[in-house]
Amino acid sequence: MKLNPYVLKRRLGKWVACAAAFVLAVQSATAETVKVGILHSLRGTMAISETSLRDVLLFAFDEINKAGGIKIGDKMYMIEPVIVDGASNWPLFAEKAKQLLEEDKVAVVFGCWTSVSRKSVLPVFEKDNGLLFYPVQYEGEELSKNIFYTAEAVNQQAIPAVDYMLAQGKKKFYLIGTDYVYPQTTNLILYKYLLLHGIKIEDIGGGLRKDDSGKVISAGKYTPFSHTDYQQIVAEIKQFAAGGDACVINTINGDSNVPFFKEVAAAGLTPADCPVVSFSLAEDELRALPTKDLVGELGCWTYFMSINTPENKDFLGRWDSWLKTEDHPGVVKEKRAMDSPMVLSYDGVYLWKEAAEKAGSFDVGKVRAELESGTISFNGPGGKNTMEMNHHTVKNVYIGETRANGQFKILKTFDGVAGEPFLLKDLDAKLAAASK
Amino acid sequence: MTKPGRIPPWLWLALLFLSGMVYAALGAPDEAVIRQQMAQAILSEGTNQQKLLGDLADTGSKVVRDVLSAWSHDAVFIYESNNAKTPVLLEDAQDAGGKARAIRIIDGQFVKDAKGMELRFGANDLNSADVDMRLRKGIQQALDSLALADADPEARESAVSKLGNSQKLQYIPILRARRGVESNASVKKAIDSAVALLQLSDTNSATQLAGVAELARLKDMGSLDALKRLAAKPDCAPPVAKAANDAVRGLEEHIARVNFFGTIFHGISLGSVLLVVALGLSITFGLMGIINMAHGEMIAVGAYTCYVVQNLFGSGFGFSIVFPISFGGSQLHFGMHLPGLNATGWVYEGYFLVALPLSFVMAALAGLVMERTVIRFLYRRPLESLLATWGVSLVMQQLFRMVFGANNVQVSSPAWLQGHFSINDVLFGYNRVFVVGFAIVIVAGTWLLLTKTPLGLLIRAVMQNRNMAACLGVPTQRINMMTFAFGSGLAGLAGAFLSQIGNVGPSLGQSYIVDSFMTVVLGGVGSIVGTVCSAFGIGTADQVLQQTTGSPVTGKIVVLVAIIMFLQWKPGGLFASRSRSLD
Questions:
Q1: Same domain, A232 and A263
Q2: What's residue B149's pLDDT?
Q3: Do A228 and B222 touch (CB under 8 A)?
Q4: Which residue in B530, B491, B519 sits closest to B276, CA to CA?
Q5: Nearest to residue B290, comparing CAs of B361, B175, B374, B369?
Q6: CA-to-CA distance for A297 and A302, rounded, in angstroms?
Q7: Chain A nearest-CA residue for B157
Q8: d(CA A255, CA A262)
Q9: Which pLDDT belongs to residue A91?
């Protein structure tokens, strides 16, 4: 049969229209993607801690993608992770940050663990106007318009812990830490805070260092990373604690905690007489510590795995089933723990999602304006997080007691503590006023 | 045949029966009677109640302590039915509605209704048992004397010092009463100083003076703060202030003495750690002349052996390695699982005694393999031995990572290595005393082996002049092999010990390799005596400087600088040995 050319043309037109409609339909079904950066050390000393954060970020992305993605206007965006490795090398962190912002053009970066890595990427983020979410407890005294700190500020960890010890009637505080910026700054803040709360100088142990003008520039005892010999220090603590009502504030970081706590146990310093409050030991670290020596010692974080809420139980269940089914390379599946830095990473992703959806754009300026508005909050596994104008979050703080199974028994909850990065100036002013 | 280490069931039964008999014969307070008394005390009033509380305090029972502390926190409730009042506690576990089962204090059973169903209550459904100020004080006193009657002397001591620091004079008679029946010497001493401390809070200056004199006699370091406080008080009578100041001075002298002897002991124990760690190297590097960078990994082999043995005594040990190479789609996979003994009690605590010889054997085997495959080609090329052994150390670290994971592993100390004893307030940790003894034993063993046995003679001959020894018919190959294995085995022993005081991880060896070389070089390469002297020298100097400068880092720096200066002056070390192989 010979087709009439007119009919042919009409049929062809129909087909073309059909095909075009089909292509359009397919396009709107496979939603657009948005690139999101992960900047953590996957090699080197910090890899042990930081790979856990990469894993929980991937978990959060998978969860969001599975639920349909991020809704900007009426379009859905899938998250496409761009993972770069800072390799525990601080200048490399800056290079990788530059690569993420300038070549990959990611909408946001989640990353950094150590303060020095954050300090090294900060100028890059400010120059390229990027957006960084930082999840690990830190010393404060910093505020960049390009960084949002889901981390615990000093007044969301160290100060509540000290408040708790003061309420328990402790009158003597021994400060000990690893020699770098976080313990030094935290202890200096605590030293001033304790003076302000009526603790005498001679009841703050560990020693003071003063500059030429007699101003105290460092409080507490410091040991280098990987220090192993704590005999003298523990003997000193034992004498310090002999008069009763004493406690130890421990900011020792990393595996030096093992020889420290073994020595503490051997010297017969029990939590009943002289408890040790640690700020760097979470569930993830406790997996590699002899928990038998730590039973009854205290920790303070904004999340504990043992929090008994339906949200947390549901979250841990989802995390476990994700671990079983996911196929990302390099994710260890056995003997995993959840802890505060991981949950704060997770919370950060949802805070950013919420802000981008409200702003209707991934534009850094618009998202930042939303985040700073004080209306962005997320009901996370550790409770409600609200991002504030000062780039820090309002969240719950928990004091817990270590148990033999590597978990914490929650002793006290402080609800809705607002993060405050600048404490030193305020404390100095109050101390000056008090001395007048 | 019975399996070793398992006690037959009949013996258990017999033991259980016997202990029950003994318990009954000693007239242990019967729980049922105590519970009756408690229920009675809660429901009664006035002086009768106070008397019952006093009786309860004398029982020393844990049940009483729990109920009393609940009572003072308004957590004892009264359940009323048929005009009968029953005191109850609510269980901790609550259901979704915030309700919990109630436990009757009188017999420890759950409260049930007529049909035998367990009843559930919320905290607001029941009235709490009455407590007023006076009663609360009585309860607190009963709790305090209960703590003083605890079965564990350490708990008693802790309770005593808590009362001593309370500044409340009403505790003096309670403490004195306890002093009359106390049998433990250190608790007695603690009670004496607690009473004296409380006397300081008295307003009568004669009593204060008595307290000060007693504290000065006892030299209790815990009283320093209280004495200083007393002397600084504005209303303190001048003779009391003077006596207090004298006592403070006496105590400070005492503390200085304690610190002096403590520091010497710390120095000796740190020296022993260094010695234990470096002794193996003084054989492989000192005697054999191999710059053995893998020495640290031999230490790690010993430490991981300790970890594996511990797990075998516990729940078992398993690992699996997936090699990142694929063969036609399937990955190379290697793994094994060894079942554990599930031992408990003293059998489990004894794992360390098994681990010690095993860690020697495992590290010696590793050393043997290394000598046969790498070292034996390099006896004449010491610099190449540095590179080769460094390579071996990297390979071994990666192996540890693959088998045991990149994280540190948990090794728990057996109970008999925990704790301490004290002589005149100087603390001696059991683990530290153990390392000193351990160092003495292995040094003595090494010295005997090298000087008093035929093997030692051959070793010394080969190490002094390999060719000459070979000419005289000494099997130098075998002697080399055995010497290297022996040195590695010593490193393994060091690892087993280090697992008790520090971390066990893939990079364990790296943190000790520098210390080991420092000790051997300072002591003089090739001299065991030198290694011993330098280990104790470095250890003591480090601790003394730490004590005097107050900073752990400054001490280390000063020691390192001193070592460098010393080696400039005497490059051969403390005991320079002359040997042709070193020329």
A1: yes
A2: 78
A3: no
A4: B491
A5: B374
A6: 17
A7: A273
A8: 12
A9: 93
Sorting pLDDT into bands at 50, 70 and 90, what band is B1?
very low
The verdict on residue A16 lying in a domain is no
Residues of chain B neighbouring A179 (CB-CB closer than 8 A): 553
Residue B417: exposure state from Cβ atoms within 10 A (0-12, 13-18, ≥19): buried
Residue A412 domain flag: yes
Q: Do B552 and A235 touch (CB under 8 A)?
A: no
- Report pTM: 0.80
**B547 to chain A: nearest residue by CA?**
A232
Q: Length of chain A, please?
A: 436
How much is the average pLDDT of B207-227? 85
The verdict on a CB contact (< 8 Å) between A267 and B224 is no
Under DSSP, the state recorded for B328 is: T
Helix (H/G/I), strand (E/B), else coil: B92? coil
Question: Shortest CB distance from A244 goes to which of B161, B430, B505?
Answer: B161
B552 with A232: Cβ contact below 8 A: yes
- Which residue's structure tokens are 């010593």? B490
- Which value, in Å, is the radius of gyration of the alpha carbons in chain A? 26
Cα A13 from chain centre: 59
How far A358 CA lies from chain B's nearest CA (Å)? Answer: 36
Helix axes B510-523, B528-549, angle to 10 degrees: 110
pLDDT confidence of A6, banded at 50, 70, 90?
low
CB B526 within 8 A of CB B582: yes
Write the single-letter amino acid at B211: G
> Does residue B129 have a pLDDT over 80?
no
φ, ψ (nearest 5 deg) of residue B211? -60, -45
Contacts of B419 in chain A (CB under 8 A): 266, 268
Closest CA to A338 of A410, A408, A278: A408
Contact (CB, 8 A) for A32 and A76: yes
Q: Do B500 and A242 touch (CB under 8 A)?
A: no
Q: Which domain holds residue A365?
A: 33-152+308-394
In this structure, is residue A242 part of a structural domain? Answer: yes
Whether residue A386 sits in one domain with residue A351: yes
CA–CA separation, B504 vs A76, rounded Å? 49
Helix, coil or strand: residue B54: helix
Phi, psi of B321, rounded to the nearest 5 degrees: -115, 130
Crossing angle for the helix pair A424-435 and A181-196, to the nearest 10 degrees: 30
Domains of chain B by residue range: 30-134, 151-236, 259-320+352-419+429-582
Tell me which chain B residues have a C-beta less than 8 angstroms from the C-beta of A47: 406
- Which chain B residues are Cβ-neighbours of A229 within 8 angstroms? 270, 542, 552
Residue found under tokens 């760097």: A280
Which residues of chain A are within 8 Å of residue B165 when distances are taken between CB atoms?
Answer: 243-245
Amino acid identity, position A309: T
Considering only CB atoms, A232 lies closest to which of B411, B419, B543, namely B543
- Which residues on A lie below 8 Å from B509 (Cβ)? none
Fold observed for domain B259-320+352-419+429-582: ABC transporter involved in vitamin B12 uptake, BtuC (1.10.3470)
Rounded CA-CA distance A122/A112 in Å is 11
Express each pLDDT in A305-326 by its tens digit: 999 899 999 999 999 999 999 8
Grouping H, G, I as helix, E, B as strand and the rest as coil, residue A393 is: strand
Residue A361 Cα to chain centre, angstroms: 26
Contact B319, B404 (CB under 8 A): yes
CA B455 to chain centre: 39
Q: What is the pLDDT of residue B130?
A: 73
Residues A146 and A180 in one domain: no
CB A249 within 8 A of CB A173: yes
State whether residue A47 sits within 8 Å of chain B by CB: yes
- Closest CB to B412: pick one of A233, A238, A292: A292
User: Taking CA atoms, what residue in A is nearest to B190?
Assistant: A242
Contact B224 A290 (CB under 8 A): no
